[in-house]
Each structure stands twice: as structure tokens, then as C-alpha cells.
UniProtKB/TrEMBL annotation:
Gene3D superfamilies: 1.10.1760.20. The keyword ATP-binding does not apply. It comes from Paucilactobacillus suebicus DSM 5007 = KCTC 3549. Probably a riboflavin-binding protein that interacts with the energy-coupling factor (ECF) ABC-transporter complex. It comes from the Bacteria. Belongs to the prokaryotic riboflavin transporter (P-RFT) (TC 2.A.87) family. The chain crosses the membrane at residues 12-33, 79-99, 111-133, 153-177. Its main location: membrane. It is a multi-pass membrane protein. This is Riboflavin transporter. One of its GO terms (molecular function) is riboflavin transmembrane transporter activity. Keywords: Cell membrane, Membrane, Transmembrane, Transmembrane helix, Transport. It holds the Pfam family ECF_trnsprt. It is found in: Cell membrane.
Amino acid sequence: MKVFNLRRTVGMALLGAIAFVLMFVEFPIIPIAPFLKIDFSDIPVLLGLVIYGPWEAVGITFLKCLIHALVYGMSLPELIGVSSSFIASCALIFPFYFALKKKNGSQRSKFILGIILGTLSLTIIESLLDWLVVLPLYMDVLGMKLTISLPSLVMMGVVPFNLIKGILIGVVFWIIAGRMRGWLSKQV
């Protein structure tokens, strides 16, 4: 039992470290909101979800965010961003988990359902969070000024960003998981 727990802990730590490194590969996609950037750090988190389960995937997410906060500092703007990243990852984890654990349907249909539910969850949660908490906090803390109204920024920037992000992360994860199917089945 101790070997299993050690192996699990090391695997989760490695996935968290890989997720942290992938946070460096980021790029903006919505010109109206260039501060919103896509990264692929949720791919190792979703792999952890398949291998270990939803709460372990939350732990991997926490680890990547903790390392990021420790490396970049614990300033208030950094903590706002890393907290939003944590919530965004969790918004993907649970819908994916419930879709993949669904009893009926092929693996393909479960992945498609996971991508759809994860994307919708991510978009709704992050849009509300950005509208009600994150963007107002950034405006107060950083003195950030908007050139359009906050609801317009959310509808024209945050919503399309999260729709694209959810679909992109989901499809890339589906491709990677498909290529790793043999290895993943041995891990589960």
C-alpha cells in the first residue's frame, strides 16, 4: 500500500510540475482582451483526472498554482490571477469527470460530452467570476481602466475566450489521451 501511495504522490507531483511549466506557453487570442491568455497547463490536470480521479486533479491544479505563486510572488494581482486560474481548472475537471464516468455511450461520445460540459462550465463560471470579482478587483488594485463597459468586455472578450479555451483544451486533451490510451489504461 505504501508503494502505491508513493507512486500516486510522485505521479501527481510530476503532473503538477509539468502543468506549471506549460503555464509559460501562453498566447492571447481575443484582441479586445489581450490579458486573457490560453495555456495548456490543464492537459496534465486532465491526465491526472483520468489516472487518479477528480480530487487528485484538484490537488494537481493546486500544486501548479502554488508553484506559480511562489515563483512569481504573492502580490495581490498575482494571487487574483492564480486564484482565477485555479477556479477555471476546477470548472473543467468536474464536468469532464462526470462525462467520462457516464455508464452509457462510447469513449468518443464521453469525451465529446466532457468537452461540451467542461467548456460550458468554464465559460459560465469564469464569465460570472470575471464580471463580479476578478475584473473589478484588478480595476481597484491595479487602477486598470476599461475602454468599454464591464458587461461588454465580459460578453465580447471573456465569453468567447473561454469558449475557445475550453474547446481547444478539450480537443488537445482528447488527441493526447487517444495517443496514450494503452499507457493510460495501465495506470487506471
